[in-house]
Design a protein that fits this description.
This protein has one helix spanning about 1-45; strands at about 50-55, 60-65, 75-80, 85-90, 120-125, 135-140, 150-155, 160-165. It is an alpha+beta fold. The termini are far apart.
């Protein structure tokens, strides 16, 4: 019995750290899969989709733009795990620099975009499968222990991918 107690007391902290790391990884994968769902829905339904992020309310979700549909029956929302923080690292919609890259053709429109979340950062997926130039380039997920993962725009600008600190 004493040997069992010693073994449990040695392995318990390592297991707790392992499960905290799995939570951060799971949250990053859930966010990444939501980007893929948004892009897929935009293409298949022919409607712009927006993945909104609310760091203060610790939530994010996906829905069709209200300018095309008044309500989205397939809209989803998620709350972050209690030990995880979400930050928008690079938000293009706030960039007004003259050196900012020009939008790709079809990536933006001159008409104003309506949103159910106008003051929040949003990733906007267009019906042709492209990602709007005003979308954030990177979302950072930070665990309780300070470890971080990024859901970042891929170099080819066609989708998002998970990056760790080494590949940031």
């Amino acid at each position: 019995m004493a040997i069992l107690i010693i073994a449990v007391s040695i392995t318990a902290p390592a297991l707790a750290s392992f499960f905290r790391g799995r939570t951060l990884d799971s949250e990053a994968r859930r966010l990444l899969s939501l980007t893929r769902e948004g892009q897929s829905r935009a293409i298949s339904e022919g409607l712009p989709m927006e993945l909104w992020v609310d760091p203060t309310q610790r939530a994010y979700g996906l829905e069709a733009e209200p300018s095309y549909e008044q309500s989205d029956s397939k809209a989803v929302g998620f709350a972050l795990e209690k030990d995880i923080q979400l930050q928008v690292v690079n938000n293009n919609s706030l960039s007004t620099s003259p050196a900012a890259p020009l939008p790709m053709s079809g990536a933006t429109s001159s008409a104003p975009v309506r949103s159910n979340h106008p003051s929040l950062p949003r990733i906007r997926f267009l019906p042709d499968g492209s990602i709007s130039e005003t979308s954030p380039q990177m979302l950072e997920l930070i665990g309780r222990d300070g470890s971080a993962l990024w859901v970042a725009l891929a170099r080819n600008r066609l989708n998002y991918e998970i990056r760790n600190q080494a590949s940031r």
